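Hi support team,

I've been running sequence recovery on a batch of backbones for a student project. Most finish fine, but this one hangs at about 90% for roughly twenty minutes before it completes. I'm not sure whether the input is malformed or the queue is just slow. I've pasted the structure tokens below so you can try to reproduce it. Let me know if you need the job ID as well.

Thanks,
M.K.
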């Protein structure tokens, strides 16, 4: 299995008998890490406060830098069974409705990067990772745990909490905080601050694809509409049975939660002045969920002693280069390589090197996401200049500009 995942076992395949690595958060980062570690011979205890990993959320995007890792883990056919490989992304102006640019994805991505661009429901991705993790005897999963304390004793890390009304204690050689953008590990252990609201709300919904394809939209393309104070993304998921619709709007609403109902009248009003296809599209779903788009504080330290953060917990960023899940998968894969090489005394130094390397990359990606956030929501003359600039750039050069993100691969050593 180690060869398939590309990870190497410590010391000739024999991992010393350390305490397990404790991972807080069975989201995308936590499950990917657990799977990579188990395949490399490391024992893992994963703890999540959710009582079940149920279907919350909507679609997310996995560019080739992430899909290549998941395919190497043997998850390719499962991802292809529920995810979609969009043929292209079409970018349109939300004021005029005119096409700005069409960039091929589909086969073009596979040819260029050796791995596909996939869009998938978050629950299908999490379910795929979970099913693989459940096959690994080295991973123990505890759901419904309310963590009450995290500390250290002479043997390592100690996590205390309550599971099914019973007190529980988990001992680990090391603790990984993979508990999302409102991370408790970041705030309580690392000393980072609370999540920072970006002034935008994401409205998300999925609905049956049938009526959607009766409209003028092409089958299996990702659509991106850019307009003043808002943008809209749509693509097919669930093997083409469902349409995922995401609208990001400038807002002041900032509450916790991934499952808060949004009033359809409010989102229709936000797109009232947009071209007819958008108005029709936004009117199709009966229900919406909304969540406040937050970032992790930019100065968050990644490590403290034998505690390390990954994923949104340390670099939660706006979703405007669609790299939230991809960065979580990258972090997990790189950290697994570091931990699989050994958990002995030099681990804190190696965690520091891991943090420096990953921070350089995720800072750059987050900066690109913030830049897009400004560019996407322009109106009037600046929007016209943006559209012209994108047309002049053209699909080929836009694709070249994405190489540094999509062409990334983990380096061993
Ligand atoms: C329920 C949910 C739905 C989402 N839906 C979408 C979506 O539709 N589209 C999209 O682009 N992104 C969505 N996201 C965000 C997306 O998954 C992340 O941006 C990205 O995948 C990075 O993943 P992550 O593993 O770092 O964090 P997450 O995927 O957010 O996972 C964090 C995990 O930590 C757990 N956790 C949080 N606090 C604690 C705690 N105190 N103790 C123990 N466990 C804890 C959470 O239950 C969750 O399982 C969603 C996140 C969640 C939690």
């Amino acid at each position: 299995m180690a060869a398939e995942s590309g990870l190497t076992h410590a010391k000739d395949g024999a991992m010393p008998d350390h305490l397990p690595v404790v991972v807080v958060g069975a989201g995308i980062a936590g499950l990917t890490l657990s799977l990579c570690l188990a395949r490399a011979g490391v024992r893992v205890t994963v703890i999540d406060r959710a009582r079940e990993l149920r279907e919350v959320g909507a679609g997310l995007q996995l560019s080739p830098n992430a899909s290549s890792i998941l395919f190497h883990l043997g998850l390719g056919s499962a991802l292809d069974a529920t995810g979609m490989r969009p043929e292209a992304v079409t970018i349109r102006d939300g004021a005029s409705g005119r096409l700005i640019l069409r960039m091929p994805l589909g086969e073009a991505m596979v040819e260029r990067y050796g791995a596909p661009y996939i869009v998938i429901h978050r629950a299908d991705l999490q379910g795929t990772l979970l099913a693989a993790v459940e096959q690994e005897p080295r991973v123990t999963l505890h759901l419904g745990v309310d963590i009450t304390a995290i500390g250290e004793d002479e043997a390592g890390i100690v996590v205390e909490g309550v599971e099914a009304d019973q007190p529980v204690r988990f001992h680990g050689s090391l603790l990984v905080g993979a508990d999302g953008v409102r991370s408790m590990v970041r705030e309580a252990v690392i000393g980072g601050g609370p999540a920072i609201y970006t002034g935008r709300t994401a409205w998300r919904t999925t609905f049956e694809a049938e009526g959607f394809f009766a409209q003028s939209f092409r089958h299996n393309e990702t659509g991106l509409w850019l307009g003043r104070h808002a943008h809209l993304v749509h693509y097919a998921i669930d093997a083409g049975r469902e349409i995922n619709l995401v609208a990001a709007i400038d807002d002041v609403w900032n509450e916790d939660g991934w499952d808060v109902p949004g009033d359809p009248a409010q989102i229709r009003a936000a797109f009232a002045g947009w071209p007819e296809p958008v108005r029709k599209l936004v009117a199709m779903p009966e229900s919406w969920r909304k969540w406040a788009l937050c970032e992790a504080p930019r100065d968050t330290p990644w490590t403290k002693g034998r505690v390390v953060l990954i994923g949104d917990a340390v670099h939660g960023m706006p979703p405007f280069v669609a790299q939230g899940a991809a960065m979580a998968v990258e972090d997990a894969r790189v950290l697994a390589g570091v931990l699989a090489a050994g958990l002995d005394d030099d681990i804190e130094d190696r965690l520091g090197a891991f943090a420096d390397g990953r921070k350089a990359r995720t800072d750059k990606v987050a900066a690109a996401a913030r830049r897009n956030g400004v560019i996407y929501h322009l109106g009037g003359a600046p929007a016209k200049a943006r559209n012209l600039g994108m047309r002049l750039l053209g699909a080929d050069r836009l694709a070249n500009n994405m190489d540094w993100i999509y062409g990334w691969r983990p380096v061993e050593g």
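--
Follow-up from support: It reproduced on our side and the slowdown came from queue contention, not your input. Residues 1-5, 9-16 have pLDDT under 50 and may be disordered. No action needed from you.
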